[in-house]
Amino acid sequence: MNFSTLFRTKENLNLDKSTLTILRYIAIFGQFIAVNIVFFYLDLKFPIKECYTIILIGLITNLFLQFKIKVNQLKDSYASLFLLYDLFQLSALLYLTGGILNPFSTLLIIPTIVSSTFLSMGTTIILGMITTFLLFLLSNISLPLPGVDSNVFDVPNFYKQGVLIAILIGLIFLSYFGIRFAGETKKRSEALNKLQEVISKEHELESLGGQAAAAAHSLGTPLATISVVAKELKKEIGKNKEFSKDIDLLISQTKRCSEILKQISKKQIIEDEFFSKTTIEDLLNEIINSFKETSSKKLILNVDENQKKFDFQRSPELIYGLRNFIGNAVKFAKRTVEIKIKSNSKNLEVLINDDGPGFPDDIKEVLGEPYIKSKSSEVTSNAGTGLGTFLGKTLLERQSARLSFLRDNKLGGASVNITWSVTDLNSNV
User: Fold this and answer.
1) Does residue 172 form part of some domain?
2) Tens digit of pLDDT per residue, the chain (429 long)?
3) CA separation (Å) from 338 to 330, 356, 415?
């Protein structure tokens, strides 16, 4: 376990007001029911009027939170004040009903757990310390447990201390879990936002190409009209040098605009072809050739001669995903990257192998998760945060692919297996 991350500080995650309000209503209702059952049904006596008063004050504070606090996302300071009150409110109830021996004393850790999930590390630590202090007080100072004759039933101190330690262990464990859970949730959210950004940019570029072609088509006729009129004006003017130069300039600039529009139209035709249907072999060849222009490493494409050819729709997701994993292989390879295409009646497989150090054992099981880092010195210098792998994996999975990551292939490095079922391919194309 990496203990360096145990006490890390995470960015604040705002607590939704409605979430806190609902949680507090549930707690207040539960307290009211529990108090009445114990007092009236079980006929165990304790200061019920004082308990009612404490519960009523809790209800008033929650109504204040619901109707007077206008923001939907509570800042750290606001949320911590309400959670702090909840700690003291529940502690007061426990003091009146047996202290730490009350079965409901474990609920005292809930405000700290809520803080660990939604609020800052500093707030969580402060609430945890206050919770520990209150638990210690309740283990030493409280009214007797209802229904127990203190003269007959004397609980040993070591038992109270054991209950205290058990609750504190639960507090530490669940708080740490909440902190890590919130951190991972935030990382996933950021990674998904990055993914959406990549897709949006790709589609935006495609859309801009279509708009440019439409503009070129629309402007072609007005420019042709201008050119014709300008030539007629030149005939009418004749040898008048004062206006002849201006008309010649107008004609030349009109011609220039027409040439620019023709180029835009040609580019759009190319783009339309680019995003049309293709085979996986052709697509991989294009990606490989783009890396050959910038890398000295050897890239080999092996195709099963007997393979069945399948058509793919050339989407930005597919292109980016494949390019990402081939790019990773090129980055980590010593000399060679081998890409294999295999297919049968059920599946189409693309295997990307390299002769690099391979996937470290400490991250092999979590590959495809965002923001991971290996302890291996072999890959640390080249390794990023794992975001690229996450994006590539997610994009290809959106194209119905299944991915697996292997450490050793015949080249001795990493291997990425990308598989499509024939059924998915036929339905997507």
Assistant:
1) no
2) 444 443 344 444 578 899 899 999 999 999 999 999 999 998 989 999 999 999 999 999 999 999 998 888 888 888 999 999 999 999 999 999 999 988 899 999 999 988 888 888 888 899 999 999 999 999 889 898 887 765 555 667 766 777 788 888 888 878 877 777 777 677 667 666 766 666 666 565 555 555 555 565 567 667 777 777 777 777 777 666 667 777 777 778 888 777 776 666 555 444 444 456 788 888 898 888 888 877 889 999 998 776 677 777 777 778 888 988 998 899 889 999 999 998 888 888 999 999 988 887 777 667 766 656 665 555 444 444 466 787 788 888 888 899 988 876 788 888 899 999 888 776 665
3) 10, 12, 10
Name the residue type at position 233.
Answer: L
Q: Is residue 192 part of a domain?
A: no
Q: Where do runs of H (alpha helix) occur along 238-386?
A: 241-274, 280-292, 316-332, 377-380
Nearest in space to 30 (alpha carbons), one of 92, 120, 104, 121: 104
- Shared domain for 358 and 224, answered yes or no, is no
Q: Quote the domain boundaries for residue 248.
A: 202-274
Is the same domain home to 11 and 105?
yes
Q: Are residues 118 and 14 in the same domain?
A: yes
Q: Residue 259 and residue 427: Cα distance in Å, rounded? A: 42
* Whether residue 12 sits in one domain with residue 94: yes
Same domain, yes or no: 304 and 400? yes
